[in-house]
Specification:
Layout: H1 12-20, H2 26-58, H3 63-112, H4 115-120, H5 123-143, H6 147-165, H7 167-175, H8 177-214, H9 216-221, H10 225-278, H11 283-324, E1 346-354, E2 360-369, E3 374-379, H12 385-392, E4 400-405, E5 408-409, H13 415-419, E6 422-425, E7 434-435, H14 436-441, H15 448-457, H16 461-465, E8 474-475, H17 484-498, E9 502-506, H18 514-528, E10 532-536, H19 540-543, E11 548-553, E12 556-561, H20 563-569, H21 572-589
Parallel strand pairs: 3-10, 3-11, 6-9, 9-10
Antiparallel strand pairs: 1-2, 1-4, 4-5, 7-8, 11-12
């Protein structure tokens, strides 16, 4: 519900921030504004030409003069449509450019935010900021914020002309305005409520579809199609009801405005006709009054519509600016320190970390990893193993202690330079849509020969050679056309191609079968050779070869030593070995 509150129809602070996006295009906006003024003047001139034609030429029987008026009328009509085309194109193109700028700014800002932000905010909400909310602002820029001045100018001009032509008839037209105001106020309330309900219903539909399409295999496996269809029918019906109510508001409002307009015209014909018969008013003036009245009520209806556009834009801009005003919590220092000599040494000094307040995940953790050393981190689920890798790559900042990389505190280093020294292979490999090669490169300047060599080194070469397109083979979203093992091998090729100083394997082989693990074991050893490596894994074949093993338990380091040393201690590692590793060792040796 918080997402769908519309807020105020106008907020000066938000509007000032929105107008900043117009500044690069102020020449185009000024041009469109001038076109709108000229178009409004032309629109106002048509009834006046009718007045002149009737009084000076039609009643006088002057066909030559009437032809001149007709030619002028036609010329102005062509000019009006030409100006309308230019004005519409200018505003629409300006709105599209502003959308481009805003989406680029929002996406760049999202990329700068820290992992803790994404822990708190659903992906769907962020996508809505970049898509739906920006679309609403485009509507305001392209058909609201500038066009409203044209409506106001047209209304003002018509009111002046009406009062100048005949102030009594002018007062009749102006007397209808309070009734228009009441109708508009009722319409705004109904339209606001309907718009909010439609947005809430759309949000529910999107959430339901995302959840059920992603989990379609579970839905089908447990025969939930009918139940899911019933639930979707209810949500869809809610959207239908809200949309129909919104349509009803518009369906009532515009006919009522037309009825009031017709009432005004009827009063003008009744009262003005009497003045024409008595000679107080000319026939041309009466006809011009009728035409001006028709043009007078149209901008009022347009202003009511623009009110809703403005109200929606204020709500969307508030949500967008709340996102843009969210600062990243993990940033590079103003004067980052550089590493004199890159060795790949890592040291945790009395590190404490909690995701929330003082609910500590790591408690006074200290250890050192030397240059080229391989270290395994083991422990039960929730012991803090993966948190260590997240802190080392500075996805989160610690609350106490220090983390050093080659003797330099990572919080004093430039983020991009620091992270460039790492390669992380996770259990759940993320694959982007594109090609196999683009998923290995990830935009880095890596030669094709190096990419091919990396695929060969991780034994992905035979699979790639079996594909007609080779490395240019298209990859679907999340790599759904690849097996789990192929995605894992792709991640190893990605890490090897980037040639990092420090390698982190976070349960990287847990999803790979024994045969596939055998294929990549040699590649892992080659990848680890000469590099500092941290392995978070439960596969004994990987852990045994490490220089030392760190045993975590409830956020603390309990034991440190080699595989044989820890077994000899018969402590926590020995118990883990008994529970988890012996069966895997037997399977590996069988």
């Amino acid at each position: 519900m918080k997402e769908e509150v519309l807020g105020k129809a106008y907020d000066a602070h938000l509007m000032r921030r929105l107008l900043v996006y117009l500044l690069p295009y102020r020449a185009m906006v000024l041009f469109a504004f001038l076109l709108i003024i000229v178009e409004s003047l032309i629109e106002i001139s048509f009834p006046w030409l009718t007045l002149v034609a009737v009084d000076n030429y039609i009643l006088a029987g002057d066909m030559s003069g009437l032809g001149l008026i007709a030619a002028v009328y036609f010329g102005l009509l062509v000019a009006k449509y030409g100006i309308g085309f230019l004005q519409t194109y200018t505003l629409q193109s300006t709105g599209q450019r502003i959308m481009f700028d805003m989406r680029r700014e929002i996406f760049n800002h999202i990329q700068s935010l820290s992992n803790s932000f994404f822990d708190r905010n659903p992906v769907g909400r962020l996508i809505t900021r970049v898509t739906t909310d920006v679309d609403v602002l485009n509507e305001m820029f392209s058909s609201g914020i500038v066009s409203v001045f044209g409506d106001i100018f047209t209304l003002t001009g018509i009111m002046i002309v009406l009062l100048v032509l005949d102030w009594r008839l002018g007062l009749i037209v102006l007397g209808i305005i309070p009734f228009i105001g009441i109708t508009t106020a009722v319409f705004r309330t109904s339209a606001r409520d309907g718009y909010r309900r439609v947005r809430i219903a759309i949000a529910k539909i999107n959430a339901f579809l995302q959840e059920h399409i992603t989990g379609m295999s579970v839905v089908q496996l447990y025969n939930r199609e009918r139940k899911s269809a019933q639930r979707f029918d209810g949500i869809n019906r809610e959207h239908l009801g809200a949309t129909l109510d919104s349509i009803m508001a518009y369906a009532v409002f515009y006919p009522v405005v037309e009825l009031l307009s017709a009432t005004a015209i009827a009063l003008i014909i009744w009262y003005g006709g009497g003045e024409v018969l008595t000679g107080i008013l000319t026939l041309g003036t009466l006809i011009a009054f009728i035409q001006y009245s028709q043009r007078f009520f149209r901008p009022i209806a347009d202003l009511s519509e623009k009110y809703n556009i403005l109200q929606s834009a204020m709500a969307s801009s508030e949500r967008i600016f709340n996102l843009l005003d969210t600062p990243p919590t993990v940033v590079s220092p103003a004067s980052p320190r550089a590493i004199a000599e890159a060795r790949g040494e890592i040291e945790f000094q009395n590190v404490w970390f909690a995701y929330n307040d003082e609910d500590w995940i790591l408690k006074d953790v200290s250890f050192r990893v030397g240059e080229g050393e391989s270290v395994a981190i083991v422990g039960h689920t929730g012991a803090g193993k993966t948190t260590i890798s997240s802190l080392l790559t500075r996805f989160y900042d610690i609350q106490k202690g220090r983390i050093l990389l080659d003797g330099v505190d990572i919080s004093a280093m430039d983020l991009s330079d620091m992270r460039r020294r790492f390669a992380v292979v996770l259990q759940d490999v993320f694959v982007f849509s594109g090609t196999l090669e683009s998923n290995i490169r990830l935009g880095s300047e890596i030669s094709p020969a190096r990419v091919r060599q990396a695929t060969e080194d991780v034994n992905l070469g035979p699979f790639i050679r079996s594909l007609e397109e080779g490395l240019e083979h298209p990859v679907n979203e999340r790599g759904t056309t690849l097996s789990v093992g192929q995605r894992q091998l792709l991640a190893f090729a990605r890490a090897l191609a980037h040639d990092p100083e420090i390698l982190i394997l976070d349960e990287a082989t847990s999803s790979v079968d024994t045969e596939t693990e055998g294929e990549i074991r040699t590649a892992i050893e080659r990848l680890m050779r000469g590099r500092t490596s941290i392995i978070i894994a439960h596969r004994l074949s990987t852990i045994q070869r490490c220089d030392k093993i760190i045993v975590m338990h409830k956020g603390r380091i309990r034991e440190i030593g080699s595989h044989q040393e820890l077994l000899a201690q018969r402590g926590l590692y020995f118990k883990l070995y008994q529970l988890q590793y012996r069966e895997q060792e037997l399977q590996a040796n069988s």
